[in-house]
Amino acid sequence: MSTEPEKPNTSPGGKPPKRPADDQGWVQFIEHYWLSFTILIIGILSFFLLPLILHFKTKTPTVVAYASQDEVFAEPIFKDFEKQTGVKVLPVYDSEAVKTVGLANRLLAEASHPQCDVFWNNEELRTRELAARNVFRETNGWALLGYRSRRIIVNTNLLPLANAPHCFSDATNEIWRGKMALAYPLFGTTATHFLALRQSWGDAHWQAWCRALAGNKPLLVDGNSVAAKLVATGEAWFGFADSDDIASEIHDGRPVVELPMCDETLIVHNTAGVVRGAPHPAEAQRLFDYLQTREVQDQLVQGQALESALPGENNSDAHLKVDWDALLRETDAGTEEMKTIFLR
Amino acid sequence: MNWTLLQNSLLVSALATVLSVALGFIAALWLAGLGARWRMRWLAAAIIALSLPPFLVTNCWLHYLGNAGVWQRWLPLNIFSMGGTVWILTLMLWPITLLAVLGAWQRLEPSQLEADVAVTGLALVRGLLLPLARGGLSLAAVLTFVLALNNFAVPAILQVKVFPAEVWVEFNTTFNTMAALQASWPMIVAPLLLLIWFRHKAVAWPRTEGPVPPKLFRQQLGKGWSTVGGVCMVLLALISAVLPLVQLASTRLTWSELPSAIAAGQMAIWNSFSFAVAGATLCLALGLIGWRWPVGLALWLPFLVPGVLMGIAFIAIFNRPIFSILYQHAGIVILAFGVRYLAFGWNGAAHALRGVDRDQTDAARLDGASRWQLPRWT
């Protein structure tokens, strides 16, 4: 009696299936499922072997850097650092979906068992918030780097410069109804800017301005780069954005300009900080020092990620002077007011 | 709790769901009557539409219908509105229904269409095709609703204030993860209620014959419905897949910046591919192992919770020395993908394996088919 299995008498395709001989069955099986096998092998490799390989590979000196600076700017700087020091940088970048706050939340969640050595941030307020929560080491924990700023971007095809608003407070004029774009003031550098204006003008004046601004029906979008793009494509005549986003639109050949700084302009520093309990403290210090060098800052200025290579605390140009400690204390109150005004 | 935002979110999601399900179902009527080769081509267009990033689709429609849009003169529609938001979400999400319905109709058998040749057109749709697709339609509706409800980018750009903004404020400005989780409960509970509601709506319909020949399907459906389905499918493919790609390809910057973007993001491209494959493999493997366990509903929870909050939970659980090999490398990402999307693998495997004819499996086993041969032959 043969022990060879009999084939089933029907198949999903309705066709009578061919009966495989024992030795050919596996060949046919693999031929039929080769794609599934390939995917399965890649899956197993990725899940089990890659982490192991990486684990042994990373026995060379390494430093883990969380970077909210754009990957396109940060990557060459990390590569240069690796060349100069022999220390390998393992970078973690923020994603467009969660932006800097994703990394900041990650640092807080990892505080009991830190994974990050150096946090390179392009939003000063978040660094100060993290510092207030003891995320950075006690001595020489973090430093200001070069800066970008909050500016008004104008589409010159739609709005001649002579007629454009001179500064942020002019945006509430009724003639700009439906003509401007900005990111939701509850998020990112726009939030910092609005909170700084609140500190500068006082709550009553600031609230009146916010209400007038909201009443002017601006295009409120989910990021500064989107706001700059809406102005660049003519959806809005002018808008509030970060200087690097404006530079990017100018670089792309769009008919836009940024207005000069005024006393309502906020300077937004890049910062670097060494995490408290960093797993690789010596390497962290080297990267921390390297990021503060003039060479790195000049490279960022050249790429238009920054406006100035030097911290702007003593900048003589007109700009908002911020009491950061007070701003941190006022953040919750200001945010609640903005929720009421811009999210209702 | 900001009720206005919640109301906006529910309205936008519900309208986008109704429209997506209706259009996806009508398009499926035509596709089910096509031969395998053409069906695959149109399915490819649908999958492209599903995988396009939201900002790309939104940018495309701003280019055509925005205030400075190139079609604005002769088509003065206001894209910055709830209608515009529903429109774009629909164009992104209709393929979910198409795929679900076509999957459900795989169980349709020739004898069911041939039993009464007088049952055609609307009677066929109401009496046979709709009941058979009910389970798939329910699941597609819930998935579409969840994805529309969680979408923040499209409504934000088109000036519709939606509930996810409330969650973002907690996460973004106060770093309060628990408050963000509390704020997001309507986004979890609403789809969960729908899932529970639809749980027993699927009709058990095991397959005992081969699939329906496309010609027979077309013949029974009738010319009218086929034409409507065809026009719908072609228009959807053109509007939701071809148009954004053409707009992207016709932009000079796309080509000038593509090489540097690829050069800068090589690692990211590889990671996207390998993590997705590994995550999908993990989901499917777990689904095949445990499809009989009655946990299908609970597995949807990780999919419904906002992703950032799930990420924080993973950090809290796995950021410990004992898990360091997993946490410090790709394993944690793959595991997170596996947990987040397990519901698809698990329920998909359970759905497929429950559809197998038990008599056929028993016959194969009695004939000596091994465990490896069973999936191949049954």
In terms of topology, how is this protein built?
The complex is a heterodimer of chains A (344) and B (378).
Chain A lengths: L21 H11 L1 H24 L4 E6 L3 H15 L2 E6 L5 H11 L8 E4 L2 H9 L9 E14 L24 E4 L4 H14 L1 H13 L3 E3 L2 H9 L5 E5 H9 L4 E3 L8 E8 L6 H11 L2 H9 L21 H19 L2
Parallel strand pairs in A: 1-2, 1-3, 5-6, 5-7
Antiparallel strand pairs in A: 3-9, 4-7, 4-8, 4-9
Chain B lengths: L2 H29 L4 H16 L2 H12 L16 H24 L4 H5 L6 H30 L2 H5 L6 H10 L3 H7 L1 H14 L15 H8 L1 H27 L2 H13 L1 H25 L10 H4 L2 H12 L5 H4 L3 H10 L1 H13 L3 H9 L6 H5 L1
Helix pairs in contact in B: 1-4, 1-6, 1-12, 2-4, 2-12, 3-12, 4-6, 6-10, 8-9, 14-18, 14-19
Structural summary, described in words:
The complex is a heterodimer of chains A (344) and B (378). Chain A has 344 residues and is an alpha/beta fold. In chain A, 45% of the residues lie in helices and 15% in strands. Chain A is built from 12 helices and 9 strands. In chain A, helix 3 (71-85) links the parallel strand 1 (62-67) and strand 2. In chain A, helix 6 (188-201) packs across helix 7 and helix 6 crosses helix 12 (324-342). Chain A is globular, with a radius of gyration of 27 Å. By secondary structure, chain B is mainly alpha-helical. Chain B folds into 2 domains: 3-250, MetI-like fold, CATH 1.10.3720; 268-378, MetI-like fold, CATH 1.10.3720.10. Helix content of chain B is 75%, strand content 0%. In chain B, helix 1 (3-31) crosses helix 12 and helix 4 crosses helix 6 (121-150). The chains are: A alpha/beta (344), B mainly alpha (378). Chains A and B meet through helix 1, helix 2, helix 3, helix 4 and strand 6 of A and helix 3, helix 7, helix 8, helix 13 and helix 14 of B.
